[in-house]
Design a protein that fits this description.
The chain is mainly alpha-helical. The protein has two helices and no strands. The mean pLDDT is about 90.
């Protein structure tokens, strides 16, 4: 019997992307800590700023998705009692 696999929700995809971004940020900080040449230090700083911007975007999107999911659940719950 084949198992039906449900595709991930948009919220789950955003959460996975956020985890991936956190790993990338950690690696970028590691590279920054090892950089000795001024050009490499500068490149690492730009990379960290870029990853931080993506992190902020994903975090905001997750908060919005979570709020929408909570509102939908409350609405569905209210409909169940009608």
């Amino acid at each position: 019997m084949a198992h039906h696999v449900t595709p991930p929700t948009e919220l789950q995809l955003l959460q996975e992307e956020l985890r991936h971004t956190q790993r990338e940020l950690s690696l970028a900080y590691d590279r920054f800590n090892e950089a000795r040449e001024p050009e490499l230090v500068e490149a690492c700083i730009y990379e960290i700023k870029s990853i931080n911007a993506r992190f902020a975007f994903l975090y905001r999107a997750i908060k919005e998705q979570s709020a929408e999911a909570l509102a939908a659940a409350k609405t569905e719950g209210a409909k169940a009692w009608v």
